[in-house]
């Protein structure tokens, strides 16, 4: 399980992880109190987000992510809270 906290609004999102390769995995929404329309939440529950870890340190990793049937790819940093 991956738990994400938005430091700006305090929302928490829980996602299931399915590893598909050493540095690749799929995320699906389990639950979230983030302010998204129901239609967006349903997409997040049914269509996995494909993630590839591009680089990492002990404190963060840089990843790219996209959904099937989407031309949009996001590249961002995920900070690891210990």
Helix content, binned percent = 10-25%
Structural category is mainly beta
CA(first)-CA(last) distance: 15 Å
Order of strands across the biggest sheet? 1-2-3-4-5-6
Low-confidence parts lasting 5 or more residues at pLDDT below 50? none
Secondary-structure element order, as H and E? EEEHEEE
Structure commentary:
With 82 residues, the protein is mainly beta. The protein is built from 1 helix and 6 strands, in the order E-E-E-H-E-E-E. It has a 6-stranded antiparallel beta sheet with strand order 1-2-3-4-5-6, with helices on one face. A hairpin with a 6-residue loop joins strand 1 (2-5) and strand 2. The two termini are 15 Å apart. The mean pLDDT is 93.
Features:
82 residues; mainly beta; six-stranded antiparallel β-sheet
List the helices and strands and how they pair.
Elements: E1 2-5, E2 12-21, E3 24-32, H1 38-46, E4 49-56, E5 60-67, E6 74-79
Antiparallel strand pairs: 1-2, 2-3, 3-4, 4-5, 5-6
Short description:
This protein is mostly beta strands. It is built from one helix and six strands; from the N terminus they run E-E-E-H-E-E-E.
């Amino acid at each position: 399980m991956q738990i994400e906290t938005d430091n700006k609004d305090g929302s928490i999102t829980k996602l299931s992880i399915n590893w598909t390769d050493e540095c690749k995995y799929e995320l699906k929404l389990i639950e979230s109190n983030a302010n998204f329309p129901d239609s967006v939440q349903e997409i997040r529950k049914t269509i996995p987000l494909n993630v590839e870890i591009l680089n990492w340190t002990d404190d963060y990793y840089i990843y790219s992510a996209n959904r099937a049937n989407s031309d949009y790819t996001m590249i961002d940093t995920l900070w690891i809270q210990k």
